[in-house]
Amino acid sequence: MSRAFIAILRRDLALAARAGGGGELALVFFLTIIVLVPFALGPDLNLLSRIGPAILWIGALLSMLIGLDRLFQSDEEDGSLDLIRASALPLELAVLAKGLAHWLVTGLPLALAAPLLGLLVALPGAAMAPVAGTLLVGTPALSFIGAAGAALTASLRRGGLILPVLVAPLTIPVLIFGVSASNSALGGTIPFLTPFLILCALSLLAIVVGTVAAAAALRQAE
Amino acid sequence: MSEPHRFAPLRLRASGLACRRGGRLIFEDLSFALAGGEALALTGRNGAGKSSLIAMLCGRLRPAAGEVALDGADDAPLAELSHLVGHRDGLKTALTAQDNLGFAQDCLGDPGLTPLAALERVGLPHVAALPVGYLSAGQRRRVALARLLVARRPFWLLDEPMSALDLAAQAMLSGLMQEHCRMGGAILAATHGPLGLAEARELRIGA
Fold it and tell me: Do B88 and A79 make contact, defined as CB atoms within 8 angstroms?
């Protein structure tokens, strides 16, 4: 059983490592957004560094959403999903493996790249680690909320556009607490840990609920 | 191969199955039984519902009426006891044939032949390290069929298994199916041509 779990995880990581796998695309998209924002805002460095954490979070959110529609759709199209369904592995664990793989190839690199890209939005040095930290614990929530949406749209031919519309509203709490934790590290009355722990809780909740919801959506027979 | 391992006796019973797709009744009142060691050739014109019946058996499609029961399996659903080889071959084009089969083996459990040995059986030992995307339609179909050998499952649900295969490969598949039946496995194959199984019964739907 755990063999099937590891097999799904390893296969998805191997597929992401191939050209066009999607992992590096999310990172490049993230970079593009972060580069564009300073041009739009103009030469106000104080403004930029004040909204830096928010820009990084929105960039990460959008980067996680692109390519998410392929999470289950590609498996549905080529029949691999039938193979996974035919496994003795509970579908919930299969979804967990796929969500984990998605986070490892998109969320984790985004969080690791955030301090570097923070330089582009004049993020103060003291905020680098907190922003990366919030992205590190917050992006799993995005992966698994997205997995539920991706499972719902797996068999839709034009699921690509409907997915962000479906998923983005559900990510609002993650965005709020992610940004407020990052901002609280810059000063203010709220201690960093308060929103940060709520963010951790949101992530844990999303992993459980997203996994169960996605498995239920995939299990639904026509 | 070493001591051939026989499958435990199983019996699949379908009674009064009906299929409705897009509001249209495809077939109704379809009943059949399939026991270990038997082969059933599923025939019928295009659109008669052959693929729908197979989707129904592996749980992807809910029957509009009737039920499928399995005797002899302790509560395991048919999907976990069967191999499905259909038009969507379940192969990742970016991965090699060997990796694809290794994944199938890990997923399906109860390992049989190794991926390399299975590829040898279907006559494709030389493509093991090639990404599946480079293979021809017939070669891909043979890699998908090699999946039947890497994990041991008593039911084979095959959707037009002979399509895209050359004559030698068709004979090879007939041989594999005969061997599977001898070991107590059961086969249900949707087909338009002969399966090369002398003892196969025919189930005609939507006549």
Answer: yes
Q: Are B86 and A85 inside 8 Å of each other by CB?
A: no
Q: Report ipTM for this prediction.
A: 0.88
B58: part of which helix (H) or strand (E)?
Answer: none
Q: Which fold has domain B11-204?
A: Rossmann fold (3.40.50)
Distance of CA B29 to the CA centre of its chain: 23
- According to the 3-state scheme, what is the secondary structure of chain A? CHHHHHHHHHHHHHHHHCCCCCHHHHHHHHHHHHHHHHHHHCCCHHHHHHHHHHHHHHHHHHHHHCCCCHHHHHHHHHCHHHHHHCCCCCHHHHHHHHHHHHHHHHHHHHHHHHHHHHHHHCCCHHHHHHHHHHHHHHHHHHHHHHHHHHHHCCCCCCHHHHHHHHHHHHHHHHHHHHHHHHHHCCCCCCCCHHHHHHHHHHHHHHHHHHHHHHHHHHHCCC
Is B127 within 8 Å of B135 (Cβ atoms)? Answer: yes
What's the rounded Cα separation, in Å, for the pair A38 and A219? 45
Who's near A140: CB < 8 A, 6+ residues apart?
A: A99, A103, A107, A203, A206, A207
Residue B144 and residue B97 in contact, taking contact as beta carbons nearer than 8 Å: no
Mutate to test the interface with B, among A87, A93, A220 (most CBs of B within 10 A): A87
Convert the pLDDT of each residue in B152-189 to its tens digit: 999 999 999 998 899 999 999 999 999 999 999 999 99
Q: Which of B31, B147, B33 has the alpha carbon at shortest distance from B82?
A: B147
Q: Produce one character per residue of B119-141: b if its CB has 16 or more CB atoms within 10 Å, e if not.
A: bbbbebeebbeebbeebeeebbb
Output the pTM of the full model.
0.91
- The C-alpha of A14 sits at a distance from chain B's nearest C-alpha, in angstroms, of 8
